[in-house]
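Write out the bound-state structure for pyridoxal-5'-phosphate.
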Amino acid sequence: MSGYQKPEAGPGGLRLHLNENTRGCSPYVLDRLRQLDATAASIYPDYTRAIERTAEWFQVATDEILLTNGMDEALFCATILALRGIPDGEAIVVEPAFDVYEACVRALAGQTRHAAFRRDFVLNGADVLGLVTDRTRMVFLNDPHNPSGARIPQDTIGAIAAGAPDALVFVDEAYAEFASGSFIERALGEFRNVLVGRTFAKAYGLAGLRVGALVGPRPLIARLRDIVPPFSLNSFAAEALVAALDDRGYIDEYIAESEESRRLIYEYCRRKGMQAFASEANFVLVRIGPRASVAVAGLAARGIFIRNRSDQPGCEGCVRITAGHVEDTRRALAALEEALCDAR
Ligand SMILES: *Cc1c(COP(=O)(O)O)cnc(C)c1O
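---
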């Protein structure tokens, strides 16, 4: 496989395959973007205000955070820090994993070692530490986990970070807004080798503008400052970020909708005798079984896109459905019902 495979979706239609906020960003964000003048496009961005506001949002100091062009750039820069100039440097990825981890490791000519979850996406820290060698420089952990929605307990993350002190542990918290608890406080207070990645793509509805963040202890952030490009955020992204944080109501409403959507999906699956994994993110992994690809195609034919995850380890017969706005979820479940009936 070369690079990141961008999943296909036709134009229009209901996009429930990439965990985006299907209603877009908050109207307040759009208002603020409309007020930008021509110089916002013509001058290099100064996003000091966005850094201050985001630091405040995560309750960290401004030298404990870096804003990035989406979390993808955060992952890439962290991988550069960990693997640059290390011959045969190794990174550990817990599968199934977000594709970008492996793409970053490959870009730095590193080797990936794969750990696996136990049953039902339970991560045993010893399974990760068992893969550590004297060349291991990085460990990718994803909490809440995509595509299962499962949590990695903070003590497991802590044990891995403590047990692999020469590795940079990257905790990908792309879905933290939908869950209870972040590792940020412990990353700053207890460790010198843990970075937390955050994104404003999912809960905040800014995926198209590309805004992410790296949060970590000062010495790590200082070293990353030499790697992250000086103008990672464009002026529009920076303005949108501050505006999004100013409109907390919009985010809270979306988080509440997502909770209700998950509940609807669980309930549907219970009725149908299908396994739905308990999720703390804005999606649910559902084990449809052998009819999974028929269901995905049936939904696509009805203009609804969900993600087939059947080819991923531990996800046999599974699809991932974005669980955001309740109305979208109802439509998706109604279409799923039709698609499964057709498939009989
Ligand atoms: C969406 C996602 C990201 C990437 O976020 P961007 O800010 O859009 O680059 C990172 N990690 C996981 C697990 C994701 O699902």
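---
Residues 150 and 309 are 15 Å apart (CA to CA).
The pocket of pyridoxal-5'-phosphate is lined by residues 70-72, 98, 142, 146, 172, 174, 199, 201-202, 207, 212 (CB under 6 Å).
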